[in-house]
Amino acid sequence: xxxxxxxxxxxxxxxxxxxxxxxxxxxxxxxxxxxxxxxxxxxxxxxxxxxxxxxxxxxxxxxxxxxxxxxxxxxxxxxxxxxxxxxxxxxxxxxxxxxxxxxxxxxxxxxxxxxxxxxxxxxxxxxxxxxxxxxxxxxxxxxxxxxxxxxxxxxxxxxxxxxxxxxxxxxxxxxxxxxxxxxxxxxxxxxxxxxxxxxxxxxxxxxxxxxxxxxxxxxxxxxxxxxxxxxxxxxxxxxxxxxxxxxxxxxxxxxxxxxxxxxxxxxxxxxxxxxxxxxxxxxxxxxxxxxxxxxxxxxxxxxxxxxxxxxxxxxxxxxxxxxxxxxxxxxxxxxxxxxxxxxxxxxxxxxxxxxxxxxxxxxxxxxxxxxxxxxxxxxxxxxxxxxxxxxxxxxxxxxxxxxxxxxxxxxxxxxxxxxxxxxxxxxxxxxxxxxxxxxxxxxxxxxxxxxxxxxxxxxxxxxxxxxxxxxxxxxxxxxxxxxxxxxxxxxxxxxxxxxxxxxxxxxxxxxxxxxxxxxxxxx
Length: 523
Description:
By secondary structure, this protein is an alpha/beta fold.
């Protein structure tokens, strides 16, 4: 345990109760996910949807972006049967929506599975592949992505002659103990479906660590009168009910049917096994992947990254980079100079008008409290990004490759700073801090890096950088901790636990070296 001489305050005794009495579930509540929702004008959303439908029918992503809108049922059918031309019907519906809507804007969150996790809607196209007799099904989607997934499942069953209905819900409350409630209108539709003697299917991209979202919806259906044996949970992975963090998860889970979707379709690598010429990487479906590829092209043209070539179904083909991944022992003035130029390039080229992440300080404070029962003294002004950018987010040595001609190439640089983990849009200080932490830079090396970055960019990050170093280190420690809980492979879990211990030790060392400032207790 750290002592009182370090640059943060021990949390007062009266506030330590929630830490002292924590269960394993409470200890798993590290804050690593950010809120990626952004307000978007309704007219903009409609225009994006119309634009997606006006693409040629042979464009693979033609319907994928559109599936998240209110027209999901019609668009899901179009997605499964591309030969069906539903454009005229859709445009008529658009006109009616624009005529009656009073909503000027809406908060839109990226559908995480489609943007980050290589989830494809077609995985949910066969909820009951072993049953061909026409029947009935009431399908309940969970959250935003459940709108799309439930629509695809319903459309596929309708095409096979099933009678289907569909609703979506958003479970609320504690992430490890979600509660789902149906609206009066949804309750009526559930009661109507009960009389059809059909199946009730709850669809989600999960289960996650707790499984509580799927369980909450299944139990809400039970409370509405649906027998447990008629409820099937449909998700993307086979869980171990004993390992789920929801309360009494094993017993609750065993009461319902469970089905895994079809396996992912993303498993190919171009080139021969021994000497690949290209690598395929999932960058995201639709506009999410397009944005990542635009960044990759800029980095390639500037000489920092591999060349992206063709793309389809969210996959981007990149030229294979021959060479040797760097290690911490490869640190040199040349490497630091390249990283300084790279960060200056991102600071100049990857500006964003999106709202910068405002919870970085709160994330660092909470995670330090959970790990050490102590609070670092981080200044709020350090995290006010006046000129937010999309950072790299992965500054580890092995992500830099030295090619046979001696050049340095940064891999995997397009997406991680803009996914659903911290940091999101922020200051370039995040990547500079990441370099200091990941490369174990000495004070002299860190001074050289910052001096070169400042000289190239005209931006001096020295005042705000120490707080970013703390935030970066505690995020990576928390990330590895949470990831170790989520994986099932013992070797991968052991690897992540080892990384977590390394980041924890680094964080302690960083905090020791920071100048002492008055701290605050956590509210």
